[in-house]
Design brief:
- Helix content is 41%, strand content 10%.
- It is α/β, with parallel strands linked by helices.
- α5 packs across α7 and α8 crosses α10.
- It has 14 helices and 7 strands.
- It has 3 domains: 165 residues, P-loop containing nucleotide triphosphate hydrolases (Rossmann fold), CATH 3.40.50; 90 residues, Helicase, Ruva Protein, domain 3 (Orthogonal Bundle), CATH 1.10.8.60; 53 residues.
């Protein structure tokens, strides 16, 4: 887990705590926030780390084959079952079973999952023998399951069985202070497979990255950095090296160069624009700083420079 923000530290603390338990865990977060990474970290830090780690993409499970995929089958159970096969639940025996994208499962799949999640007992297709499985269940979804339940698209009973311990992953736009750290991390990863040495990213490019809303979150950022490193051809990454949809951005950069620790530079703000940003966030300094992509201290300094004061301080 790469980052230094308060939000990501809370996630790390939650992972470390839940890793010491056997509780069924539900990971919530937008696409690209790293739900599988969190689930795997839970497994690695748990007492089951020496056991298997089995990841299942629930969205890819078809209604016709779901029981065979999850629970296995015996020889001759159906046409094409030429030999006995164990399913994902038994494959994860003694370890962790990660049910990814569980919010995308059909009602038929949800019915079949409910009993297995609830009782940890399964039956292979074509067999009446009940088998107990010793697995830790971790599920993840990018959908708000409570809303899916109210809309009738997700079973209430399965929701309550999964919603025991919850880890919520913040989107990247809500932890912008982590962007410089993540960018440097991805640059380091690019150094080995690419020729030349990409040592840094220029301020103009970082300013664009700090302003982008990142609908694809960390996954999108990683792809952008990899693309920029290829385009830079061994030189420091400039704005022109970013993908076209970012390099053509007209947004004014708000970035203070955290990588080189340069002092703050003049901001393209006037007092009215800064006051609007503070009012939009109800004068909460932390929320406003995060929305602008700056540190709290930087925001305080900017308020003093532009003589912007909170209405509360005038009382």
């Amino acid at each position: 887990m790469v980052g230094c923000s308060h939000a990501i530290r809370r996630v790390q603390e939650r992972i470390e705590f839940l890793a010491q338990t056997e509780l069924t865990t539900l990971i919530l977060g937008e696409t690209g926030t790293g739900k599988e990474l969190v689930a795997e970290k839970l497994h690695q830090l748990s007492g089951r780390c020496s056991g298997p780690w089995v990841c299942v993409n629930c969205a890819a499970l078809s209604d016709g084959l779901v029981e065979s995929e999850l629970f296995g089958h015996v020889k001759g159970a159906f046409t094409g079952a030429i030999q006995e096969r164990i399913g994902h639940f038994e494959s994860a025996q003694g370890g962790t079973l990660f049910l990814d994208e569980i919010g995308d499962t059909s009602p038929a799949v949800q019915v079949r999952l409910l009993r297995a999640v609830d009782t940890k007992r399964i039956e292979r297709v074509g067999s009446h023998e009940t088998r107990e499985v010793d697995v830790r269940i971790v599920a993840a979804t990018n959908k708000p399951l409570d809303e899916e339940v109210r809309a009738g698209r997700f079973r209430t009973d399965l929701y309550y069985r999964l919603n025991v311990a919850v880890i919520e992953l913040p989107p990247l736009r809500e932890r912008r202070e982590d962007i410089p750290v993540l960018v440097q991390h991805f640059i380091e990863q690019c150094k080995e497979p690419l020729p030349g040495r990409i040592a840094a990213i220029e301020e103009d490019a970082m300013g664009v990255l700090m302003q982008h809303p990142w609908p694809g979150n960390v996954r999108e950022l990683r792809n952008v950095v990899e693309c920029a490193c290829v385009n830079a051809q061994g030189e420091p990454v400039h704005r022109k090296d970013l993908p076209p949809y970012l390099s053509a951005s007209t947004a004014a950069p708000l970035f203070v160069d955290a990588l080189s620790h340069k002092p703050p530079r003049p901001y393209p703000f006037d007092a009215a624009a800064l006051r609007r940003a503070l009012e939009d966030n109800r004068w909460r300094i932390g929320h406003t700083a995060a929305s602008l992509g700056v540190h709290r201290t930087t925001l305080w300094r900017l308020m003093q420079r532009l003589h912007v004061t909170s209405p509360r301080s005038k009382r």
